[in-house]
């Protein structure tokens, strides 16, 4: 192709590169697929294959799929196909080795767009012109010593998180859940809170979605979170935006790892997952419906709450709620052994608090959004079940200002 000059010529070449997914021509192609095993394709007689190299597979109907070399043995290569291996014919499928690792095109124009799990736009919008190509495996680690200490709270709209496990900007928070529990609802409500905030401010163009749906290839889930995090790093570090990343559901990611591990016939670990699963998850993590608040913890909460950030009574209310809820749980266990008749009047107060705390504070409607001040006020309404003398974790000055209100106890 003859070189073109001028801005129009450069724009045309860039647009042409987008349509062919930035693939340079010509390339050496192979027609040596020897077998397909689950999400894996085995290639023979390949010259100098490299680990983690990206491979483009062209099927008989002309459609293309991307894969990554997982294992190399002499002239053989095992390729993991991101879009799945359904329909791949060993006789008619050709393969191209790109000579590069998996990089994703990133641009500030990705804001307001929707992409599939492989990073391809699915919102019927124009192709995204890449500003840079970033390695999705390496990331951009930050020296903890040089980073600014997180001291600004993020409001999620969920009382149990905002009041008792406040999240600071720059913090990672995993939500652990047992099988069958609606942990996705917490992520959806957090996302919905920010989505509503964006819509009210007319800034929905500040959202970038990567979707791997139930009917999408399972193996695609392995790269989806890394594509999202790489895009978030670009928007944060190079475009200097504040970015909130929500990843759900990581159990599906772990199951995709298990599928690849089983196809490679690796020795499984616990529950069939590969032994390197936690190391793999660490490369991602480091880069309500009822919540069990007692074992929950936010290590940076102390730096993101208090006067000038939330409210000066925040820390004291949180500590007192924790203490009373823990005592209430102990009283509930004791009641199961000795019966309610053997409980003291103070014990009955803790039981009343326990019931109303779980009903009115922790349990929260899916579409009910509470500000941190609303959550603190609900906490105070519950603490007023007790006389002042029993609230020993709250200073007298705070009690004098916030305790004397009309009404007693949480609403039924």
UniProtKB/TrEMBL annotation:
CDD domains: ATP-synt_V_A-type_beta_C, ATP-synt_V_A-type_beta_N, V_A-ATPase_B. Residues 189-286 form the ATPase F1/V1/A1 complex alpha/beta subunit nucleotide-binding domain. InterPro entries: ATP-synt_VA_C, ATPase_a/bsu_AS, ATPase_F1/V1/A1_a/bsu_N, ATPase_F1/V1/A1_a/bsu_nucl-bd, P-loop_NTPase, V-ATPase_su_B/beta. One of its GO terms (molecular function) is proton-transporting ATPase activity, rotational mechanism. Pfam families: ATP-synt_ab (PF00006), ATP-synt_ab_N (PF02874), ATP-synt_VA_C (PF22919). Keywords: Hydrogen ion transport, Ion transport, Transport. Residues 304-403 form the ATP synthase A/B type C-terminal domain. Residues 33-99 form the ATPase F1/V1/A1 complex alpha/beta subunit N-terminal domain. GO terms for biological process: ATP metabolic process; vacuolar acidification. Belongs to the ATPase alpha/beta chains family. This is ATPase F1/V1/A1 complex alpha/beta subunit nucleotide-binding domain-containing protein. The lineage of its organism: Eukaryota, Metazoa, Cnidaria, Anthozoa, Hexacorallia.
């Amino acid at each position: 192709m003859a070189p073109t000059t001028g801005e129009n010529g450069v724009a045309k070449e860039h647009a042409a590169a987008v349509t062919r997914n930035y693939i340079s021509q010509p390339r050496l192609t192979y027609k040596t697929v020897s077998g397909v095993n689950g999400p894996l394709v085995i290639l023979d007689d390949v010259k100098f294959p490299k680990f983690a190299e990206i491979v483009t597979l062209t099927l008989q109907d002309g459609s293309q799929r991307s894969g990554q070399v997982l294992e190399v043995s002499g002239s053989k290569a095992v390729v993991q196909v991101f879009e799945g291996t359904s329909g791949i014919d060993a006789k008619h499928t050709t393969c191209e080795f790109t000579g590069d690792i998996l990089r994703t095109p990133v641009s500030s124009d990705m804001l307001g767009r929707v992409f599939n799990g492989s990073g391809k736009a699915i919102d019927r919008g124009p192709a995204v012109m890449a500003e840079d190509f970033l390695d999705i495996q390496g990331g951009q680690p930050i020296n903890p010593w040089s980073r600014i200490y997180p001291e600004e709270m993020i409001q999620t709209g969920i009382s149990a998180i905002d009041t008792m496990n406040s999240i600071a900007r720059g913090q990672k928070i995993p939500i652990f859940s047992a099988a069958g529990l609606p942990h996705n609802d917490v992520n959806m409500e957090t996302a919905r809170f920010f989505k509503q905030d964006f819509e009210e401010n007319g800034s929905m163009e500040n959202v970038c979605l990567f979707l791997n749906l139930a009917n999408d290839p399972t193996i695609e889930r392995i790269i989806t979170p890394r594509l999202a995090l790489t895009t978030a790093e670009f928007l944060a570090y190079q475009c200097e935006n504040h970015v909130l990343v929500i990843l759900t559901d990581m159990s599906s990611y772990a199951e995709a790892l298990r599928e690849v591990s089983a196809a490679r016939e690796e020795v499984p670990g616990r529950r069939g997952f590969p032994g390197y699963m936690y190391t793999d998850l660490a490369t991602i993590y480091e880069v309500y419906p009822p919540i069990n608040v007692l074992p929950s913890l936010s290590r940076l909460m102390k730096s993101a709450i208090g006067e000038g950030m939330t409210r000066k009574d925040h820390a004291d209310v949180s500590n007192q709620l924790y203490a009373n809820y823990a005592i209430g749980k102990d009283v509930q266990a004791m009641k199961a052994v000795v019966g309610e008749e053997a409980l003291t009047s103070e014990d009955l107060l803790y039981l009343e608090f326990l019931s109303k705390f779980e009903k009115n504070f922790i349990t929260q409607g899916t579409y009910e959004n509470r500000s941190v001040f609303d959550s603190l006020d609900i906490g105070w309404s519950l603490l007023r079940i007790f006389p002042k003398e029993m609230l020993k974790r709250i200073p007298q000055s705070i009690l004098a200002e916030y305790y004397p209100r009309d009404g007693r106890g949480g609403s039924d």
